Amino acid sequence: MRTEFNPKRLIPLDLHGEQQLTATKLLTLRAELNAGRILPSTPVLYTQRGSALLVFQTRHFSLYNVMQGTLDGEPWLATFCAICNAGMSFSPVIDGVRYDFYGAGFYDAMTLLADKQTGSYWDHITGECIAGTLKGAHLEYLATMTHSKAGIVALTQPAARLVVSALDAARAALDDLAEGLRTDAKPQWLPAVTDSFDADLEDTRLPRLEMGLGVWTPQQARFYRFQTLHSHNNRLFDVLNGERLLVYIDPETLTPAALFTDATTAEWRGDILMLNNGQRVENGDVIGLDDAPLTRRPLQLFQRWYGFAITFPGCAIYTAESVVSAPAHPL
User: Fold this and answer.
1) Are residues 166 and 232 in the same domain?
2) What phi and psi, each to the nearest 5 degrees, are found at residue 32?
3) What is the tens place of the pLDDT at every residue in 144-170?
4) Is residue 199 part of a domain?
C-alpha cells in the first residue's frame, strides 16, 4: 500500500482556474485524417468507453492532465500525467452521483486528482480516493490510456472518435512546451515537482526516470525495462499469474506492449511478429488464422520507473536472466 497522504508534499497547480479540459466535440478520427486536420504521425492516446474508442492528442494532456465528457449519455473521465507518462480512464459516477474532477497539482511527482464537489484527492492511476470526505472510495475503471499514432489507430479502428476540446492558441503553446518536457529522456524537474517527491521512500533499484512497461494483475505487478526488451530483439516471453505473456516493442509506435498468448516463440518479419502457434501480432493486435483479432491484454502502462514503483510498492522487475522477485502487491 502507498504511504499515508501528506498534504505538505502536495504542490498545487493553478492554470488560471481551468485545471480541466472539457470535451466539446467527438469527431471521426479517419475523417479528420482524410481532411488533413490531424497528421498520421500525430502522437495520440486512446482508451475505451463501452464499445467506442476515444482518441486524444497527447499534447493536450501534457499541461492539463484531466479531461471529462459524455458519450451516448455515458460520462467518462480521462487522466494523463506528462511527468510519469501514464494515464487511465474512469467513470466519474460514484453511487449514482457524477463528480467533476480536475488536476489538483503534483504529488509524488505525479498528477493528483481532486473533485470539485468535496475537494477529496484521488490517485490518477488506481482511481482510489486517498484523502478527504470520500477517502477509500474507488472510481470505476474503464481502461488504460495507450500510446499510439493517429494513422495507426484509424487503420485498425475505423470508427475511433477524436476528442476535441476548447484549447486556445496561448494554452496550446503551453501544451507544446509541456509535451517537449514529457518526451525528453532526462527532463529537468522543476523545483516544485521535486518538492512533491519523498526521496526517502524512493525505490532505487532502477534509475528514477527510466522508461518501461509496467504490467499488473490483482496479484502481481512487474516492470519491463525498455532497454531489456530491446536487448531481446524487441520481444520476450514471460509468465504472469500462470499465463504466458508476450512483451514486445511495437515497431510503428516504438511503444512496448504486453499480450497473453499460448505461443512459445516469435520472430519478426518486417513489422509483423509471427508466432509459432500460427497467429501473428500486427498493428497491436493478435490476429488468428481466420484473420480475426484475438487480443487479450493485462493491465499495463508505458511509464517512468518511479511512478510505477510508487503506485505498486515492491513490484518485481524483469531482467535478462530472471525476474527480480518482490512481494505481490494487493490492489
Assistant:
1) no
2) -65, -35
3) 999 999 999 998 888 999 998 766 555
4) no
Enter the pTM of the model: 0.88
Could you tell me if 13 and 77 lie in one domain? yes
Nearest residue to 123 (alpha-carbon basis) of 95, 81, 63: 81
Tell me the one-letter amino acid at 137: A
Place of cell 498520421: 40
Count of domains forming the chain: 2
pLDDT for res 137: 97
Amino acid identity, position 104: A
Residue 323 in grid coordinates: 525476474
* Residue 75 maps to a domain: yes
Residues 6+ apart with CB under 8 A from 58: 43, 44, 45, 80, 147, 179, 182
- In which domain, by residue range, is 215 found? 211-324
pLDDT at 19: 59
Residue 299: is its pLDDT beyond 80? yes
Based on the fold, state whether residues 163 and 253 are members of the same structural domain.
no
Are 133 and 12 part of one and the same domain? yes
pLDDT tens by residue, 181-201: 777 777 777 777 788 888 888
Which SS3 state, helix, strand or coil, does residue 155 take?
Answer: helix
Between 240 and 168, name the one with better pLDDT. Answer: 240
Q: Which of 128, 155, 153 is nearest to 140 (CA)?
A: 128
Lowest mean pLDDT among 38-47, 179-188, 222-231: 179-188
| Surface-to-core class of residue 153, CB atoms within 10 Å of its CB (0-12 exposed, 13-18 middle, 19+ buried) | buried
| Residue 256 counted as domain residue | yes
Q: Are 307 and 85 in contact (CB under 8 A)?
A: yes
Grid coordinates representing 324?
A: 527480480
Backbone angles phi, psi at 46, to 5 degrees: -135, 155
